[in-house]
Amino acid sequence: MNSNAYTSIVVKLGTSTLTAGTNSLSPAHMVELVRQIAQLHHDGRKVILVSSGAIAAGRERLGFPQLPKEIPAKQMLSAIGQPRLMSLYEQLFGIYKLTVAQVLLTKTDLADRGRYLNSRNTLAALLTQRVVPIVNENDTVATEEIRLGDNDNLSALVANLIEADLLVILTDQAGLFTADPRLDPSAELISDITGPAIPQSIWEAVRGTAGKLGTGGMLTKLQAADLARRSGTTVIIASGDEANVLTRLAAGEKLGTRFSPLATTLEGRKRYILAGGNNIQGILTVDAGAARALRKGGSLLPVGMTHVTGEFDCGDTVKVVNHSGDVIARGLVNYSAADLVRIAGKQSQEIEAILGPDYDDEVIHRDNLVLL
User: Fold this and answer.
1) What is the tens place of the pLDDT at every residue in 250-267?
2) For the whole prediction, is pTM greater than 0.70?
3) Residue 85: is its pLDDT beyond 90?
4) What total of structural domains would you count in the chain?
5) Which of the pair, 1 or 38, is modelled with greater confidence?
6) CATH code (residue 308)
7) Cα(152)–Cα(215) distance, rounded to whole angstroms?
8) pLDDT band at residue 146 under the 50/70/90 scheme
9) What pLDDT shows up at residue 206?
10) Is 303 found in the same domain as 205?
11) Distance CA 318, CA 138 (A)
């Protein structure tokens, strides 16, 4: 992809990058990374930051205590460190007159279609207002069953969520190597990965490369890169110590390890919507005018609906059919079945009087709809 097409970028900063390899957060290093993100922002790009560091900030605040490795201790450190981390980010981004927002997610927020859609809409609203969202896993309340486990994979899911053009994962290494360069001086940097399958030799090379402070290692970064590229996102793993690394990558300079996308973002979105398979929750029947509008690339509005079948909630996958019963589309719905029954056939300006002020103009937005 041409660098000019990198309009939406997810930047993942790991603990080793934020601490510059020490035991404490490094404000001097962080302000340099923030400066680069601010430059991307001022260039008109939409940037989301996925940041680790809360546990390290909490451990620093308590004077580096010896604690058990169980989840409750980590949750306690995260609860202490997260507000300190966000306060520091707010100060640093404030230097460049940028507003930040905290977004905490768990696996359930992204596995459930309704929460997935709500998370997507929240991030879209923040980006529309030119706010920089700072995303972290909700370590304070997450249990083992709903944890993502690392922010590398979280960054890939966020990239999928907003259909990012580029995901940059910064680490303490120059990129992905044929072996661990800290142990094998003959290890060589892998510049590009383009094939549909990552060679088994590379998977074996990254096992056991966890960092001293972070929860992940190069293995989780490789997993994240593979996930994001299958959703249509270009991924680059590079060193956070490289001068102006973010602005140089956004400009198209070759640094680190680049993973070419295996699909367009549109195809990635289609796969997500079509993944409903037989798990279709409802059927929306539309009139001829609505069918024509959908085929021309429009969204589905309440006024074009004539009938609602099935039980479903906001974010579920539904089929759209014409009066002959032909399936013309499938999409993620913005309303529950009960609410759609009440507003079917109504003009948009009538919805507020029926459902109240918090409503969507579209039943299914064109970005969440696949024509069949």
Assistant:
1) 999 999 999 999 866 556
2) yes
3) yes
4) 2
5) 38
6) 2.30.130.10
7) 9
8) very low
9) 82
10) no
11) 30
Per-residue pLDDT, 348: 83
Encoded tokens for 182? 């800290």
Here the tokens at position 245 are: 């690394």
Whether 181 and 302 share a structural domain:
no
> Using the 8-state DSSP alphabet, how is residue 300 labeled?
B
Q: Are residues 348 and 318 located together in one domain of the fold?
A: yes
Residues 168/12, Cβ–Cβ less than 8 Å: yes
Q: In the listed set 246, 268, 290, which residue is the last one of a domain according to the structure?
A: 268
Distance CA 66, CA 59 (A): 9
Q: Number of C-alpha atoms within 13 angstroms, CB side, residue 305?
A: 26
Per the CB < 8 A criterion, the answer to whether 288 and 89 are in contact is no
Nearest 5°: the CA angle 111, 117, 119 is: 85
Q: Which of 249, 268, 287 is where one domain is finished?
A: 268
Please provide the average confidence, as pLDDT, over all residues in the chain.
Answer: 86
CA nearest 59: which of 39, 40, 45, 78? 78
Take residue 292 and report the two structure tokens written for it.
Answer: 């024509």
* Cα–Cα distance measured from residue 186 to residue 176, given in angstroms and rounded to the nearest whole number: 13
